[in-house]
Amino acid sequence: MTDQHLRPEVDFDPWSEQYTREGVDAERRMHDKCPVSFSSHYGGFWVVTGYDDLRSGLRDHETFSSEKTFDAAGNAYGGVTVPTSSAYKNVPEEVDPPEWNEYRRLLSKPFAPAAVRRMQPRIDAFTTEAIDRIIEHGQGDLILDIANPVTALITLDILGLPLADWEFYAGPIHRLAYDQQSDEVKAGMQACHDKLAQTVIERRERPQTGLTDDLIAARIGGEPLPDPLLVDMIGQILAGGLDTTGSLLGHAFDHLDRHRDDHVRLIEDEKFLQIATEEFLRWSSPVIGLARNARKSTVIHGQVIEPGDRLVFIYRAANRDPAVFDAPDDIVLTRFPNPHTAFGIGIHRCLGSNLARAVFQTVLRNVLRRMPDYRIDREQARQFPILAVANGWIQMPATFTPGPRLGLSPSKER
Ligand code: HEM
User: Fold this and answer.
1) CB of 343 sitting under 6 A from ligand 1
2) Which among 99, 95, 227, 215 has a CA at the least distance from the CA of 158?
3) What confidence score (pLDDT) does residue 1 get?
4) Tens-place pLDDT, residues 356-381
5) 290 ligand 1 Cβ < 6 A
C-alpha cells in the first residue's frame, strides 16, 4: 500500500481556469515536486508529467486501461478523462484489446498515408473555398471561418455524411471541449447523437459511399455491428477530427503573426514545413493530457499505483521535459529530431495523425500564401477557457489585404 503521507500531493484540477492560466508553469511545478504526483480532486488521481514515465506507462495498456464502462443506472466509469465523462463512449479510444483490435482495424483504411495522399485534392479544395469566403473582405476569423470548416468538412467527407451539416456537428463538439456541463451543450450533443443514430438506420436501407457505409457493411465474427456501437465509432471520428487540428492551427497562426520571418520559408520549403509541423505539435500539445485506469499494482517513479487508481498522463508536460528537449518552452521550428508525444503513445496512438498533418500543412501554406500580411485582433482572440480536453481557440479575428477569390465550392456538392 502507498503510504499516503509520503505521497507527493499536488493541488491539480484539469478543469480549473487557474490551470488554464498557469498552464505549463503549473505542470512544471508538479514535475519538479515529483514526475508522478497525486491530486485529490475528483476522487483522487495520479498525475504523470515525466517523458519517460509517460511513454512507458502508455505503452503498457495491459496495466493501464482506457476502457469506459457503464452501470445499469447509466453511470460511467474509467475512460480517458478525469472525471469520467458520462456523455458517450469514444470507440476505439475507450476500449481495451481484444475488442479494440477489430474496431481500430475497421476504422483505419481512410487514415492510412496513401489514402490521405489521395484525399489531398479535397483538402486543397475545402481550404480554397474557406479562404475564398473571406478573402475579398480583408477580414475574417482564422478559427471560425477557416480552421473549423476545413477540419469539419474533410471529416464529414471521409465519413460520407452531408457536408451541409458541418456546423450542426461542429458547434456542440467545439463547446464540449471546454463546457461539458451546460444544458445547451448537452442538448447539442444529444442532437448530434440522435442524428447519427437516424443516419445509421437510413444508410442501412439506402447505402451511399464513405466510412459510415463501410462500418455498416462490416462484420465482426460474421455479425454486423450494433447501431449504438456504430454511433460511438462515427462520433469518435467526428470528435477526433475537429478541435485537435483546429487547435494546432490556432497556435501556429498565433506564433506566425508574432514571428513573420519564417513565412516565406514555410511556403517554399516543404521539408522545413514538415519539421516545423512537429514543433508546433510538440509545443502546443493540442490534446494536453488523457487518463487511464490501473488494472494491476505497479510502481512508476517510486510511487506505488494500486488497481483501480486513476492516472492522468500529461502529454504537454512530457513534451516540455527539459531532460529530453533543449529550451523546451521555445518554439524552434528547425528542431530535429523531435520525439514528441502529441499524438499519444502505444496502441491508442492517434489514428488521424497523417490526416492532421496534411490538413494543418495545407491550411497553413494557403493562409500564408493568400493572406501573407494577416494580423490577429488580439483584443478579440479567445482561447478555450478550460484546456482539460483540447488546447484550442474559440475565435481568432484577423485583418489582411483583400485578394481575389479562386472560385471553388466543394462543400455544395453533397
Ligand atoms: C493535431 C491533431 C491531433 C492530435 C494532437 C490528436 C491527438 C490524439 C491523441 C493524443 C490520441 C491518443 C488517445 C489516447 O491514448 O487515449 C489520439 C487518438 C485518436 N485520434 Fe487523434 N489527434 C489529432 C487529430 C485527429 C484526427 C484528424 C482524427 C480523425 C479524423 C483523429 C482521430 C483519433 C482517433 C480515432 C483516436 C483513437 C485511436 C485509438 O484509440 O486507437 N485524431 N489523438
Assistant:
1) yes
2) 215
3) 44
4) 999 999 999 999 999 999 999 999 99
5) yes
